[in-house]
Amino acid sequence: MHVDMTMPYCSSLRQTVIDAAVQQNLPVHNGACYVSTEGPRFETAAEIKAYAMLGGDLVGMTGVPEAVLAREAEICYVSVSMVTNFAAGISPTPLTHAEVVDTMKQNAANIRALLHQTIVTAVPAEDCACQHALREFGGFRL
Ligand SMILES: [Zn+2]
């Protein structure tokens, strides 16, 4: 089957996460284009330049195939991206794994607060389109 990935994330759950970020006074950017690359490695400066020319705002190595698998399982799904560094060719210094780990440690409390607020305020969508992504195939079955 070919599942529709026009909008890869659940719009309902996405709004819940955005609202939770606002309630926690956390910076949130709504509407970026995420480019998922195959890692684990940092991209080259040429790759980053090409992705930017194509309209990419963020580049990372996660999110695929998770978003596709969630849609195929008819699960409402969103992704929260933690920006850990500027990309190759943009960063004024060479990229290091330590930079990524340090930033993740600094943001751990924010992520916990965001997830907690999201879980506390999330209301399961009763009839979200995500839950009917495979309608023409009879739905998801285990
Ligand atoms: Zn949904």
What does this structure look like?
This protein is mainly alpha-helical. The chain has a single domain, classed as Rossmann fold, CATH 3.40.50.1580. The protein contains four helices and two strands. It has a two-stranded parallel sheet. It is globular, with a radius of gyration of 17 Å. The structure holds zinc ion (ZN). The site of zinc ion has 7 residues, from helix 1.
List its salient traits:
single chain, 142 residues, mainly alpha, Rossmann fold, 38% helix
Could you tell me the number of beta strands?
A: 2
| Contiguous helical run count | 4
Low-confidence stretches: none
Strand order of the largest sheet: 1-2
Largest sheet: 2 strands, parallel
And the CATH topology? Rossmann fold
Helix percent reads 25-40%
Bound molecules: zinc ion
Structural class: mainly alpha
Short description:
With 142 residues, the protein is mostly helical. The protein is built from 4 helices and 2 strands, in the order αβαβαα. The protein has a two-stranded parallel sheet.
Itemize the secondary structure elements and their pairings.
Layout: H1 11-23, E1 34-36, H2 45-53, E2 58-60, H3 66-72, H4 97-121
Parallel strand pairs: 1-2
Helix pairs in contact: 1-4
